[in-house]
Design goal:
This protein is an alpha+beta fold. The chain contains 12 helices and 10 strands. Strands 3, 4, 5, 6, 7, 9 and 10 form a 7-stranded mixed β-sheet that branches. A 3-stranded antiparallel β-sheet has the order 1-2-8, covered by helices on one side. The longest helix has 22 residues.
Length: about 325
């Protein structure tokens, strides 16, 4: 067993100066959130912004399951309005798996097992707030291969296609997550230390999808199709909706937006300021995902035509 830090060289110096640029909203909480997000990024953890004080359901979460970010993208995604920080498990975070104990008894049992093996790793908990799983917590580890997620009595194995909420995020019950044991994440040479859990290796999902005709027309900036929408932003919201319904993830969509001209709003912003463009696309993607989750089987085009000024928002 080894304890190698999967770190990136970039630091957090100059963050306050960065966040005072015109396209950012700055306050002490914002600086703290971005600082923590950059710390996680330096340890090789893939991140996703989450609603402040909330979690994402499965339908909305899975569009972010393969997100990977660099330092500039982390600053762009976590600046602005208050947000929770989600850490993506599985391959995007270097085969990260979290043992999420629901009760103090299971938490203490896992802690004792790991201590007996000399394993000290990043551990996340929250103060009790009267909600389910008070007194529990999770232990983050890295494994040689990505692990299949599974639910056990009072214990969740958070591996491929799962995420967890990191400090200093706000739990829906009103308390703030904290580090019981700080980073780094302990890296296992093999799975023998976790043999008692009977973990399974995850099968990797296919990374690409057949795109709908609407998505192709919008990606290629078909003038007649783009003209059906109130603005380029609405057309790009429609494009996001089409991609989401096709099963694309945010990372795949971002590559497509940068590969093709599209309706043009994102491309124009990206040429001027890539961080602002990323925040715009992230917000559009997030809002369209929420709309789809609430509107069931309505067509993405109809959805986008009804979208309002949120598509232009930067906060």
């Amino acid at each position: 067993m080894t304890n190698t830090r999967n770190q990136k060289p970039a630091g957090v110096g100059g963050l306050a100066e960065t966040l005072t640029q015109p396209h950012y909203t700055t306050n002490s909480q914002n600086v703290q959130t971005v600082s923590r997000a950059l710390e996680y990024d330096e340890h090789g953890l893939a991140l996703v912004p989450l609603p402040y004080g909330a979690k994402l359901d499965y339908q909305r979460w899975t569009t972010y399951r393969d997100v990977t970010t660099n330092r500039r993208e982390v600053i762009a995604l976590f600046s602005g309005k208050p947000q929770n920080i989600g850490v993506i498990c599985g391959a995007p975070s270097g085969n990260l798996v979290a043992l999420d104990a629901d009760t103090p008894t299971i938490y203490d049992e896992i802690e004792a097992r790991l201590d007996g093996l000399g394993i000290r790793t990043w551990t996340v908990r929250r103060p009790p707030n009267g909600t389910a799983h008070d007194g529990g917590g999770l232990f983050a580890l890295r494994t040689p291969e990505p692990i299949k997620s599974a639910g056990r009595p009072d214990l969740d194995i958070l591996g491929e296609d799962k995420y967890f909420i990191a400090p200093d995020s706000l739990h829906p019950g009103g308390t703030v997550y904290y580090d019981e044991t700080p980073l780094p994440v302990f890296e296992l040479d093999d799975l023998s230390a976790l043999a008692w859990l009977n973990l399974e290796i995850a099968r990797q999902a296919k990374p690409w999808h057949k795109l709908p005709d609407l998505a192709w027309r919008l990606l290629k900036c078909d003038r007649a199709t783009v003209a059906e929408y109130q603005s380029r932003s609405h057309a790009e919201a429609a494009l996001c909706g089409s991609l989401i319904r096709a099963g694309c993830t945010f990372s795949e969509a971002m590559r497509l937006f940068r590969q093709f001209d599209g309706p043009g709003k994102f491309a124009e912003m990206d040429a001027q300021n890539s961080q602002s463009a990323l925040r715009y696309l992230s917000l559009t993607w997030s809002n369209v995902t929420d709309w789809i989750a609430g509107l069931g089987e309505n067509e993405a085009g109809t959805l986008a035509k009804n979208c309002k000024t949120w598509a232009l928002s930067r906060s």
